[in-house]
Amino acid sequence: MAAPLLLRGLPLLRLRMHLQQRHRVPAAGLLGLVQRPLCSSPCEKTPSEEATKTVELLRVKEPTKLFDRIDDPDDHRKWRDKEEEILRDIEPVILLTKEILHSDRYMDGERLRAEDEKVVVERLLAYHPHSEDKIGCGLDSIMVDRHPQFRHSRCLFVVRTDGGWIDFSYQKCIRQYIRNKYPPYASRFIREHYKRSSG
Description:
Elements: H1 2-23, H2 47-58, H3 73-102, E1 110-111, H4 114-123, H5 131-135, E2 139-146, E3 154-160, E4 165-168, H6 170-181, H7 183-193
Antiparallel strand pairs: 1-2, 2-3, 3-4
Helix pairs in contact: 6-7
């Protein structure tokens, strides 16, 4: 499969080499020949001027580095220690939330028991970036149900005192908790542990 693709490129390579010899383009000109119309007017630049300009555009003043510095081993050790601390801190609430959502502990539309609700309200909902909007007129309870748009997924809902209810993302709550409690490490932790960041 790759061989026919390589063979297709040979005529283009020959054409570029022919143009290079014909117009005496510097060797770097092969990297980016400027497209020229077939008919040139006298006011346009000559091929050698175009090639010179192309070479100037291709030059890099300073080579860019993928990594500016190698992390200090002490910094790496500090990061790993802090990462373990954050994981130990958030793991119990994440495990509880996943058990609430993904086990048969609660049926769809069922309100959480008092001990589970206390943990969810204090360790999750309190840290949601828009918790005041979610609670609205007041918090009556927390409920588990199917998401209205994504019927295959279950999520947590705030049941308000006026009878209305609205879903909230426990992952947004966790991310905000990490940002509040571990500010210097939050962005790196979230980037490494939460691939898709929705807020």
